[in-house]
Every structure is written in C-alpha cells, then in structure tokens.
Amino acid sequence: PDCFNNRANLPRNMIENSMFEEEPDVVDLAKDSTAFPTFPALDPDEVVYEPRSSRLLVRGLGENEMDEDEEDCESSARLLGMSFMNRSSAHRSTSSPYTRQSPPRSCSRPSARTLVVCVLFLVIVVSMTMVLYFLPECTFTKSGCRKQTTPAEPVYPISTNGEMFPWAQLRLPQSIQPLSYELTLNPDLDKMTFTGTTVITMTVRHDTKRIVLHSANLNITKATFKLGDGKATDVTVLEYKPRQQIAVKFSEELKAGQQCVLTLNYSANLSHTYDGFYNSSYSDKDGNKRVLAATQFEPLSARKAFPCFDEPSFKATFQIKISRKPDYMTLSNMPKAKTTSLPSGLQLDEFEKTSVKMSTYLVAFVVANFTPISKNVSETLVSVYSVPEKKEHTEYALDTACKLLEFYNSFFEIVYPLKKLDLVAIPDFLAGAMENWGLITFRETSLLVGKQSSLLEKQVVASVIAHELAHQWFGNLVTMSWWNDLWLNEGFATYMQYMSLQTVLPKLDIGNLFLDVRFRALEKDALNSSHAVSTEVNTPEQVEEMFDSVSYEKGASILLMLNASLPGDQQFRKGIIQYLNQFSGLNTDTDNLWNSLTQVDVSTQHQNVSEMMSSWTSQKGFPLVTVDRKGDQVTLTQEHFLLTSDNATHTSSLWHIPVTYINDTCSLAPDCKQVFTLKTKSETLKVPQSIKWLKLNHGNTGFYIVHYGDDGWAALIDALINNVNVLTPEDRASLIHNMFALSRLGRVSFRQVLSLLNYMTNETETPPVTEALLQLNNIYRLLDKRQETDFVSRMKVRILSYFGSLMRNQTWDEEISVSKQELRSALLETACNLNVDSCIRQAKALFKKYVESNGTAHIPGDLQRVVFTVAAQSEESWSTLLEKYSKVSYDAEKRKMLQGLASTQDTRRIAWILKEGLQGNIIQTQELPLVINTVSSSFSGYLFAWDFIQENWNQLIEKFPVGSFSIQKIIKSTTSQFSTQAHLNQVQGFFSSLKERGSQMRSVQEALETIRLNQRWMDRNLPSFNEWL
C-alpha cells in the first residue's frame, strides 16, 4: 500500500506477512517499555525496498484486489489493533446490524448508568479519532500519506535465546555489502553431516549497529568479528528461525566506508531433500550403493549450506575449500588450485577464487566419484561428468555444449568469462538442471543420451543444455535484483534455447516445440489466478511459485513477439548486447532491459520498446483481438481474454499489440506479413475489397488470441477445405488452438470447433495434428471421467474419422525426422489409448520381440512410451516391465518404462507404484510428480492419485517445497480433470484445511478455477452433444 512506501515507519512484513503466515513471537514495545526503555533511531534500512510492480496480491481472495481505500483501511486497522475496522467481506454481515426501529411513543429521561456509558463512548470515539489523526499523521486516501512527522517504531521479533532480534523484515537490510566469502566445508558421507567455516569480508554502506544475514538449519558453534585492522573478538549470534535470519548487534555504530570480517564456525546435517547441501546415492554396476553429496541453492537454499547474504543483489567473490576421502573427487564453480593431505588422512581440495562476482544461489559444489570427458573451446575447458557406468552416454552432451558455447560467445559478443565449464549428471536431482556458474548440474535424463537414442531424445538434452548455457549470460553475468523479475533470467534463457538451436542444430526442428509451449502458456495465462510477468513476491512460497510457465514460457513468448515486430533482425540482438555490456556483473529490473532495447533503435520510425513492452510485463493475461470486416474496412477490437470473468474481475486492460496479418493473395512467404499496431481499445485498418480472408498473428509469434466472427471463420474454413496448404502449418495450428480457446471462453459453440476440424482429413503436418489431438484428448478424458459413456464412444468415432487413415499410415520402424517422430508418437498414443486393434497388436508384437531378444532388439525412442503403456495393461507383461525397469541403465528409456508401469488399470498396482514413488527405493522420489501425472490421466487411477496426495500431503511437502514446480505439477495433475460440483467441493475443502501448509498457493486457485471452467464447459455443451456428434 502507498501509505507505507515512502516513509520510514512500520516494516513491511508487519502489514503483508501477516496475511500469509502465522504471527511470530514479537515484543510489543508499547506494552513492554520497561524491557527496552531506549530504542535506536531508524537507520536507512527501515525505508522499505519495494519492487516496481508493487501492489500486494492477497492470494486468498484470488487476485481480485481490494480497492485502495479498502486496503489502506485494512492496513491502518492492523497497525492500530482495531479489529472492528476489518472490512473483509468474509466478516461483513449481509444485513445491517443497525435495523431501523419504529420511533418510541414517549421520551423517557436517561438513567445515570446510560449517561456514564454515553460519556465513555464519546471519550473512546474522540480518543480513537485523535490517535488516527496524530499517531501516523496520515490521511488515508488513494494518494496515500501526505506527510509524516514521527515514524512509528518497528515491532521486533524474539530470537531463539529470548533476546530481541534487531530486524523485522523478510528482506535483508542494505547497510552491509559482502565483498568476499572464504568457505571451508568438511562433509562426512558416512554420518551424513558436515562442518564448515565461513569468513565473510564486508563493507559498511551506511552507519548501522547490526549485521543481518541468512542461515537455515546450521548450528553455529563460534563467531568472531574484526573491524578494519583491529583484533578479532567473539560475538553473540542471534537467530530468528521463521525468517531463516541471524544477526550480530553492536553497542557502537559501524561507520559507512569501514571494512569488517565476520567468521562463523558451524555444523549441520546433510539435507535429505533436494535442496541445500544434500546427500544422494546410486547403485554401481556391481550393485553396491555409492553415496555422494551435491548442492541446489536456487532460490533460497545457499543459507542451508553456509551463512550468507542470500539475496540475488548481494554479489560477492567466493573461495572454496572442501575436504574428502582419497577415493572421492570434488567439483566447484572454479578450477581446482591445489590439493593438500590432512593429518586425518583426508584430502583438502582448494579451488581458485571466483574471477567474477556471483549471487549466492549460483554457488555449487559436488563430492562424488564421477568420470569426465573434456574438450577445449576458445579459452574454456568444457567437461561432462557422470557416474563411471554412464560415461558412454556423455558424448552428445559434450559436442552440443561446445557448439552452443561457441554460438553464444559470438552472438552476445561477450566471451564466457571462466576458464572451465562443467556439466554434471547427478543421479538424484529434482529440477531439470541448474545453471551454477561454471558447474551446471543436471538430472541424468536431461544430459545423458545413448548411442541409439532418437533425435527426439536428443532434442530434450540439447534444449536443456542450450537453456542453461544461455543463463551464463542471462542470470549469471546480469542478474535480476529480486525474484519479482525472475523472468529476466528464465524468460530469456527459454527464448535463447529455442533461438540458438534453430541456428546451431536445425535438424532438431525445435520450432514445433516452441510453438507448443507458447500455446500452453496462453492457456495458463487466460486464468484469473495467473499473475503479471513481473509481480511482487514477499514470502518464500511466493518466490518458489515464480518458477512457472509465466516466468519461463510467457517470458520467452513476449521476447519472440518483440523480436518479430522490430524492423530487420539486428535491433533485438544489438539491444541485448547493449543490456549485457551496460549491466555486466550487476543486478537489473525489467525497465533496464526495455530501456536498452529502446536506446539502440536503428529504424527510421522510432519505436518506444519500453512503452510497448511494459503493457505485457506489468499486467497479467493477454488480449483477445476481435476482427470485424465490412468491405475494405477492418475493425480490430481488443479486450482481456479472461476465462473466469465476472463484475469483480472486469478489467479495462489495454495492450500495445503488434498485430501481424496475411490474406489470400499472399500468405506463405515471410514478406507477405504486414504489421499494424493496436494501442487503443479499437482501431480500423483498410484492406483491398477483393480479398477473401484475413489471418492474424502470422506464425503465432504474437501472444494473443484472435476471433474472426462467424463470416471470418467461415471464409478461413472454406479456404482450408479447398486447399490445406493456403496457410503454413503453424498458422493452421494457430487457428485450431484459437478456436478451442474461444469455445472454452464461450464465444463459439463446439459445433463451430467441429466445423473447423472437418478439414483435418487432409492434414498431414505435425503442428496442427498434435494440437488438435491434444485438445480432443482433453475433452475425451473429461467425458470419460464423468462416465458419459455414450458421448465417450461418439468422441472416439469422431477422432478416428479425422485421424484414422493417418494413424494407419504410420510405420513402427526407425524414423529419421524429428517432426515425423512427434507426429507418429502423438497419433499412435491416441490410437492405442482408444483401443484401436491394429495399434494394440503392433505395440504388443514390438514388446514381445524386445523381451525375447533380451533388450538387444531396440524399440525406436519415440515409440517406447506407447509400447510400454500397452504392455503394462497385461499382468504378465507388467511384471516383465518392472523387472526390466530395475535393470536398465539408460535413463530416457527407464523413464518411459516408468510411465508405462504407472499407466496400469490394476488398482492394487496403482496403489503400489504411488507408495513406492514416495518411499524412493525402487522408484526415485524425484520421479514421483511424473508417476502421479501418469496415474491421474487414466480412468482407474485419477481418484487414487487424488486420495494419495490428500493422505500423504505432509510427506510430499517435506520432499518438495510448498509452491515449488513439483508441487504445482502434482496439484494440476490430480485436479485438472474434475468437472463436477462434488469434486470442486472436495478440492476446496482439502486445500482450505491446509492453512500455512499450502492453502495460499496460486496453484490451488488455478486448480479451483480449472474445475469450475470444466464444469461450465460441460454444462454449456453437453445438452447439444447428441446433435453435434
């Protein structure tokens, strides 16, 4: 709220964190003045830092924010302890408590008691008015506080030892800047513990009496402090666990410009989850268990391995030493400088000091016995590490990494700054990969591919490597200031992964994948529970939740749209080179990027990139552009494409839209595209009267959906039925996606969707076929789970009428083209799922051949999932598949076997596989989200999966943090196919019962909204299904 932005008074967490978490133990200074008779004047830290997008989103209310007057009133009520001012609608009675009464017939004199009560009431009213007027000196209006004289004192929490903790905000104070860290770590892989020493050299930025930093689950055994050239003295470290903060207080002020050193000795357990400094294990070729330790610090877990200023803007240098047994090796961000033998028989590896300043979340180290293969690129030694048994699967990754490093060095015109770049496959790793500077860690499936791997499997590996290498510039060299702008890291790395592979490895045909992720990002962003690309984050759960499709895929999509709308192909590149050079080694926000792109405008018609793009990053959602053509006049109108719309959420959002369009006279060549900028609610453009049709959003490079009206759609459908090739495959897929989206919105009937799909009998290209199959399969599964058996069988007939002949034409041998592999796997998975006899027969025959040859007869990579899924439906083959799963070493194949096993319709086996995924013995727990997703898609499994997450919620959030991508995926998998009121009530009841264990997550709001939308679609369309199908 504006009231607290520009004045040094109550810390932000007092107003905002209370909405998300339980109140901590605090000392109320008003009550306990004897405990702390004097209070330090506020230092500049108390002036709250506020990210640019600054409006608090109260998640429990969806994102229908309170209006500002109401919000101000809420805040002042909290501050003054005035519960009667709580104006939340939940507490407001529907009928006024002050009912009008008929006037009394006679006046009686008030009693003495009544007079006393009245006088007391008046005194209270006057007192409260004076408090409101004098204490904050603030007029609560939309413009916020006009003036302020005496700031209210912050309310400080209590540390673990009972003393007052000297800081009351989630964000650290800005008074101290770390310059360098010296870390010594001594892991004991037998006891699963480690000890450490952290020496932090700091500079004082402005006068302060405290140093506040982060520490989580570390037992600090000794702390010393040295100011300038003075003597090191012991200091007491205070800890406030709810915010994972520690602090040292001083009786005399540290002065701006002084340097100081804080040394902390500590011990801790290795983490048993997938973050911090955690232990992992695998079985070697002889079946022996091998133990290792690795790190995953992004976003908030460096503090679990060493005490640090764990926010992206506190960049520093790092020098790391790690002790190990002689039969282990260690890796860190920098090359190893030397190894010394210790009296204990251990070895101490010392790494070079980092040659760059880094954010803490990019620090990494590994203690294991891995084997490398290496190659030099320019001045950099590139290596890929894996467990010794999988060394043969590392060559493709090394070759790809080297090609991409050369490409990025040249494209960005800034050479990768470190001497080495390691890519390490970790047996137990939750994320796909992590971009630690100089030591990129990967899940084995994201880095290792076998000799016989299909191009589709190589595409997965190349995409992840391209993404993580792009981060070495976007994220590592230039880093977002705070997690509200995470998209500057992730949106850019996602965009660059597709852009780089189109140039470096064109055979991978990455364009189809990029088109698909843009479609999926539009679907998520159409929900009212979505969020702006750059949005405020205040709690650890909200930080975790930023790792979603809005930050990644929408971020990438709007960068593609911007590049496509700029003249020529160089302005975008020059703009990002300018941005990287200007902010190298620094932290930035979204405006810095737009300003860099605006500054290098090379066109004659100057375009303000900042003005255009801020409409795409500062508000959630995207526009629906409606086309209305009358003769040579085409009127384009924009509105917010919002699936859940009511009066409360009605928005007057406007976007600066670079609308591209083609027509029937020129529709295929790149230079056919014309551009029209739509900035207002509605604008008109002129076209020749003779043209038959218009197609907007050429190549679907824009992040918006188009409605052509009845006549416009009819003209496009006629054109496609006459000649499928009048539009590119991307444009045909775009029409299919938009038509289904408009049906979900309620702007077109399902009959209109089917009339567009009538042209599909002539369609053979991957993007339109895979998009249509995905949309139809979604509806088929919803009908199936509602047990609408009649409609299910009619849908099956309809799907086979569109794609039956294409399905029959697919081969089951090796296929070279990636695009054809994508097409074939989508068609055959649908065919076998619909129990098409020929598909089931072929899949069974291929599995039988594979088993009889003892695994030497190879199943093509793109067909493995469909073959294993069919095999898993028979009791005998399921057992055979499980046996193969426990023995196979190639990870991509193993993962597809797991999907086959989880697709069983046998309920006992479903229960077993879910439980096993949670325990992590036969099936790694990192694969549990995949298991739940696969179980949820089947008729027999979806209710099991929903029961399972309710029964085991506490264990799930121990393994996967609240708000994390894994939890988001689990919630979406288990709830997205519900479409009845009974299920909606169940889901709502369960998640609201969780309180601080997950009830406030955005993914919960998404789940509830999705169920309501499924229900609405069914209610609207089921009555007419008979005549349509």
UniProtKB/TrEMBL annotation:
List residues of the ERAP1-like C-terminal domain.
693-1012
**Membrane is among the record's keywords:** yes
The top of its lineage is: Eukaryota, Metazoa, Chordata, Craniata, Vertebrata
Protein's recorded name: Leucyl/cystinyl aminopeptidase
* Disordered, as annotated region: 88-109
Instruction: List positions binding Zn(2+).
Output: H467, H471, E490
Per the database record, which ranges form the Aminopeptidase N-like N-terminal domain?
177-362
User: Bias regions of kind Polar residues — which residues?
Assistant: 88-99
State its cofactor.
Answer: Zn(2+)
Indicate the residues that form the catalytic site: E468 (proton acceptor)
Q: Where is this site: Transition state stabilizer?
A: Y552
Key word Protease present? yes
Q: To which protein family does this belong?
A: Belongs to the peptidase M1 family.
Q: How is the cofactor bound?
A: Binds 1 zinc ion per subunit.
